[in-house]
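Hi R.,

Here's the chain you asked about this morning:
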Amino acid sequence: MTIDRILSRRDRKKKKTQESLEATAWRLFQRKGYDQTTIEDITDAVDVSTRTFFRYFDSKEAVLFGDWRSNLPIVSELILARPPEEPPIVALYEASKELVELYMAERSKVLMRKKLAATSKYIGDYERNVIFAALEETLTQALAQRLNLDPENDLLPSLYASVAVSAFYTTKTVWVANDGEASLQDMLEQAFKYLTGQTEIDQGLSST
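And the predicted structure, written out as tokens:
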């Protein structure tokens, strides 16, 4: 048996364990309630240790959002791949469109998180303070590289990143509050047009 085959089998087992933890957590959250479900409840149902749980997720909140960290390098690459002459806000808008696709692909889970978040503030806190903070830092570093600026000494990359994350977060929040009935893509486009007075986004759209 080759090393590649051993690794492949190991990776498949890890993926299966992660998916089992996620599916079980979702089932328990919906049945028992989020705050009433413990990590031990989840691991007992899957028949793994809590140590195994923390190999995949850093908290109970994290299991609700899956492997979101794997999307951060993709977002960074999207920013860096945009045409160099493109304004930063347009590059951010184009990258945000990819995030929209991710949210739309998990629409049912996104809306279910809304229901669970209504019963526990920890879910919203995790999304804002951990996920969106990491996204903002990723955007800051990508923009700094793109603009050849030092984010420690120049506020422009972090300012742009903060505005873009706020636009996406606000759009997503309103979209979820309306049960995902509207087009998230259209709402995001409108949000960025509000920020730029429409001109730059319209130019960006016409060039894509």
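Residues 3-60 form a domain with the Arc Repressor Mutant, subunit A fold (CATH 1.10.10.60).

Let me know if you need anything else.
M.
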